[in-house]
Write a structure and sequence with these properties.
By secondary structure, the protein is an alpha+beta fold. The chain is built from twelve helices and ten strands. Strands 1-2-9-4-7-10 form a six-stranded antiparallel beta sheet. A four-stranded antiparallel beta sheet has the order 3-8-5-6, with no helix packed on it. The two termini are 20 Å apart.
Length: 280
């Protein structure tokens, strides 16, 4: 999977990366997409992607170009043979500016991109498809996204400030104290955060803590050690939260993170850009 960071000009640090689609070769096992407060814009040239709720294990919905809002639960990803396109990964406040709509309407949903961007998404896909090479496509995306963001509503600086404070602490910062830091009451912070991020600060903190735990587990830490380092009350607390947000126990997840071996239901964990990329 190729990841290329866009140029920073006009993008305000809110566009985290462009990924070539597909995530994996055709015929491989479905991939698990971890919970994330990031927003994904999928721009497909050929074929469709299939996404479903990992905890529910229901039928997958098929999409060509799509927007995946912030998710507090994992998604299962698969795709058609011959899928081509680009995935754009956005900070939630940047998506608020880019799309020009309240983000709470996109939380825990995946919708056709045309429902959010209208006819301009078809124009963009056509222009990207006709570009001569990958670098030309990425440069064109830089220009188009910068133009759209310039025209969109500005996000509130305290929303971004609180998000970064949560990110740097891996979700381990009390929300009431963050509200005081930015000069808002907690209710105001909750309301503006839902509007411009899509989820509450507490839910975003849970997501960040889970993702930190996943990194620890994939580094080979024992579940009990990962629970302690990530700030869970105990191993049982971690296990309950992990199952609630991914549909898997920590051990089942780790077993399936290699190549679907040892009874793991999924193949390699395919993920949106990790916070580490945004924090450096």
């Amino acid at each position: 999977m190729s990841v290329v960071s866009p140029s920073p000009a006009g993008l305000c640090g809110g566009v985290w990366g462009y990924h070539d689609l597909p995530y994996a070769q055709a015929g491989s096992d479905p991939r698990l997409l971890l919970p994330t407060e990031a927003v994904a814009l999928g721009l497909t040239f050929t074929g469709s992607v299939h996404l479903s709720d990992a905890a529910v294990r229901g039928p997958a919905a098929g999409f060509t170009s799509f927007v995946a809002g912030p998710h507090s639960g994992a998604l299962v990803y698969d795709h058609d043979d011959g899928l081509t396109g680009i995935g754009v990964f956005l900070a939630p406040w940047a998506a608020y500016t880019l799309f020009g709509i309240p983000m709470d309407g996109l939380a825990n949903t995946v919708v056709p991109a045309s429902e959010v961007l209208g006819a301009r998404v078809d124009t963009l896909v056509r222009e990207l498809r006709e570009a001569p090479d990958r670098q030309a496509r990425f440069r064109h995306l830089d220009r188009v996204l910068a133009r759209w963001m310039f025209r969109g509503p500005a996000h509130a600086a305290p929303v971004e400030q609180v998000w970064w404070r949560l990110a740097r602490s891996r979700g381990d910062t009390p929300v009431p104290g963050l509200a005081r830091e930015v000069g808002w009451c907690q209710r105001q912070l909750e309301r503006r955060f839902r509007e411009q991020v899509g989820l509450s600060p507490k839910v975003v903190a849970r997501i960040m803590r889970l993702r930190h735990t996943v990194r620890l587990l994939l580094e080979g830490r024992l579940v009990c050690d990962a629970a302690a380092e990530a700030g869970y009350h105990d191993q049982s607390h971690l296990s309950r939260e992990f199952r609630r947000m991914t549909g898997l126990s920590p051990r089942r997840f780790t077993a399936g993170a290699g190549k679907g071996e040892n009874g793991g239901p999924y193949g390699l964990i395919a993920d949106r850009p990790d916070l580490a990329a945004a924090l450096h």
